[in-house]
Automatic annotation (TrEMBL), chain A:
Pfam families from the UniProt entry: Pkinase, RabGAP-TBC, Rhodanese
Membrane-traversing stretches: none
Keywords assigned: GTPase activation
CDD domains: PKc
The keyword Signal belongs to this UniProt entry's keyword annotation: no
Gene3D superfamilies assigned to the protein according to its UniProt record, in alphabetical order: putative rabgap domain of human tbc1 domain family member 14 like domains (1.10.8.270), Rhodanese-like domain (3.40.250.10), Transferase(Phosphotransferase) domain 1 (1.10.510.10), Ypt/Rab-GAP domain of gyp1p, domain 3 (1.10.472.80)
Span of domain Rab-GAP TBC: 437-622
Name of this chain's protein: TBC domain-containing protein kinase-like protein
Domain Rhodanese: from-to ranges: 725-825
Stretches assigned to the Protein kinase domain: 1-271
UniProtKB/TrEMBL annotation, chain B:
Pfam families in the record: Ras
Region: Disordered, residue numbers: 185-215
GO cellular component, one term: early endosome
GO molecular function terms attached to this record: G protein activity; GTP binding
Name of the protein described by the UniProt record: small monomeric GTPase
Record-linked CDD domains: Rab5_related
Amino acid sequence: MIVEMSLQLLKHPQMQFGATTFFAKQHKGDTCGSNGLPLTPNSIIIVGRAQILKTFNCKYLCQYLDVIRGKHERTIVVSQYCGEPLVSCIEKRPFDWQEVRQIAFQCIGGLQVLHKKKIIHRTLSNENILLQANNEIKLFNYGLYHMSDAGSLVSFPILHVLYTAPEVFLNGLSNSIADPKCDIWSLGICLAELILNKLLWSSLKLGQRIRKVLSMLQASTSILEKIAREHNCLERYLSIPDDLKDLIEACLNVHPNKRPTCEELLIKPCFDSLKPKDMAEKNEDIYRPFQIFTLHEFYHWWQLAGGDVPQELKKQGLIRSTPPILSIPSLVLIEGTILGQDRNPATLYDPRIVKMPLDTLYQRFAHIPFQVFYPLIHSQSDIIEKSNPPPYDATGLPLIIKERDPEYQLHRVILLRRLLHGYPFTSDLIVDEAKKDIPPLLRGEIWAALLSVRSNYATEYMRIDKYTHTSTDRQIEVDIPRCHQYNELLSSSEGHKKLKRILKAWVYKNSQYVYWQGLDSLTAPFLFLNFNDEAKAFACLSNFVPKFLYNFFLKDNSAVIEEYLCKFSQLIAFHDPQLANHLRDINFYPQLFAIPWFLTLFSHVFPLYKILHLWDKLLLCDSSFPIHIGLSILTQLRDRLLTSGFNECILLFSDLPEVDIEKCVALSSCTYENTPKSITSREHENEVYHKKSNLDITGVSLNELKNELCPRISVRDVANILLKNPHKMLLIDIRNTRAYKRCSVVNSTHIPFSSVSFTENIIENVGRDSDLLKSKGEKIVVVVGDEETDLETFPKFLLQCNISKVCVLHGGFNKFLELPASLSIPCASVGDPSERQRN
Amino acid sequence: MANRSGTAQRPNGQTQGKICQFKLVLLGESAVGKSSLVLRFVKGQFHEYQESTIGAAFLTQTICLDDTTVKFEIWDTAGQERYHSLAPMYYRGAQAAIVVYDITNQDTFGRAKTWVKELQRQASPNIVIALAGNKQDLANKRLVEYEEAQTYADENGLLFMETSAKTAMNVNDIFLAIAKKLPKNEQNTGQTGSGQGRRLTEDNPDNKTVMNCCK
């Protein structure tokens, strides 16, 4: 029974969609623009322009869900499609006056939303006004004129002859003067059909219909009356109440400038009875009630469950392939002009709509318990928690499978949508869930939450000057057409415009920084995920940079980058001494290959789909994580690097071979979690995220750092490990015997610096304790000295003996004496083990 | 003629000649086509949407010149002015440089001149510099006259060609011309193969003399 309830939820009558398809206009002959780059295919421009339509969420409009590109500029538009077109009701059943008022009111409401967004329907007709069971209506296919850039991107005219305003014909069809008033005329005709209950001029041919529309221009009496007379329904006309007659006649004014706007129509007396009366209804427009799931999500699950729009269109015969031989032209001139080629009828407009079958999805989700749609987020009662159905277990599955499992994605999307609805109060819960995985459909919003984007981001973005010309513009302009252009959205003209605005806004807002090449790649993932919310993409970028790339975009960033690269080298030495030694032997410095890695956090190195998975993890870590990613890439290529010389190594990175991102994430998370934080601590870290005290590493100059092959470790980390996991650490005290005897950490190993011969890199040279080092396993080796000891030679020696996890205590032995009581570690004088000294 | 194929660069029994390695660096304003020129020369490919170069990229290509095998170790640098501070790391110790500009953009020609000056001042004294006016396929939108560039090249003793990475025009030729002009003494023969990592002479100025086979 409970299961049936969840099916009812899915089988909502408005949870249905259909698809239409058409061909974008193909570029003729020369396909290169003035800049030498190929012209963007029109279908890509359409995809870019159509994205905004997906954001419209108005009850009088069918929601756009997807735009898919097929072969040869084929474009498929997927949109909500439910109810019945009015045209199939007219002449079948009469509409009473109040019904007509209701329909008119809703149509105007829908048009008003469109016109406010500067979108003209242009093909409003009774064929794409869909009547729902509850007498609500939804406008359909209102975006074609917009996505085709006033029809210029397609090779067919966008209009419905009968409903088209006469001025559209008079201005010429190719003339794209955008005037929303043409929709008002179309509405008038729709209402006239409805109120007279007649399909107008249904027996006439196309040419005659155009003539009829144009004949309206000469009408001396009311146009509605003229129409009524021509259709022998004058009686019906005479019985129409005045308020309705007035409404329709106002719409059917031949002068577009005298035709009322949507706002003017809505205040007409005929709608008095329909305006929302109570506050609740009014507020519904401002605060939409929370939806358990949206049509977009429903469509996403449908696709995961095997739904395939192009395949359905093929089944229904809307996509047909013709043998290429039939499209060979008779004559092709050298300049590319083609003669004698029949126009492929498929390039004309095809009004057919194919409803997508939903049965597979219903079957797939039939067993899902109802409670899944209302997930328990937190509860203090065990009983309630236990009564909840067990979570869908997918933990063992690879990420790729999880992302394609419809049931799993249903669970994740339902839960995370709830949490996002509660953001920012649910921030912690979102972080916890994001650690498991991030459902691709909600990635943009989840990333914004992980980056603590605040709710006023849109206003902030609006206030920034994104248009004034600056000296950076040229650089941005040459970079954008090269940035992730394999991606449809980013290669569309809309994508270029948006990326440019975001980059300009960022440069404007961050006067302390400058535009470095690579910032474009860094912005691309955010724009891709928030294509319809430029401001959010900008906000994400703005919060991302200080967190992960603090000061990387300073005009002189060399100190920051040098330090970062040094830490990278040290991390390699820490985890993989053999590789580090080899790379140093062949002079293979990170400067030569890793700058684009870290400056763009791999967004210049990997394709988008890999970056998304990489950053899913990055966003949950701190600014040291990229070094670990770098290490994991080297680790994946380790065998090849170890057997290669300089040239082979550098060539390997100039043309980076396939890197397994899931492995990369796993490896880097592993080293990230098993490396004490201070090992990767930097002077140039953002203090906001890395608060430091005397127990941390501070005051290391770049020159010092460059000479240190092994990283430093803070006394805080040493104390923490010694207190919690003493077996994970080996303290090597290299001070002279006198100092060691005076005071030393209990269980530390004493290898006086002077006792070791550094002539050869043989670990046995350290004397009797060499076995301890050889068999140390994963233990961290902390070299402890003081201001009098040489702290470079000994760690370097250990490194060259391929001892892993070697680090040097920052500040030397005396730092132990600064530890607070909570972190104090046992120290003793040799000879008197009972004496415990602490400060 | 140059052997441009991607494989079989190893000298075989028939061409038992000298083998010389040269370090070559590409410089020039961004989006003039440096990476495209290298890609055309090394792989015979052209990508319309060649990604921007950050830092630098390294590629090698070997060509045969009479009885000598010339191996170019090519550093393709980032064009943006901000990356300028990195440039010396790449051109130091280079025996050859190609300074690239875009014939449809006068500013890039100006920038090329600046690079030439810097090389003359800072790089190895014997460096062979070539000037490449790229994007010759867009000659109908030309803003830098051929004669202007030729005169400038003559005055400064540069090799000069207009090239097109897109149509491959003059791409091999310019590398070949450089190879011809580079002095090939006995010092470098037989020094191919791996394990000679000392291209980067950041900390060690001696490397310049070791490496430089023009000495």
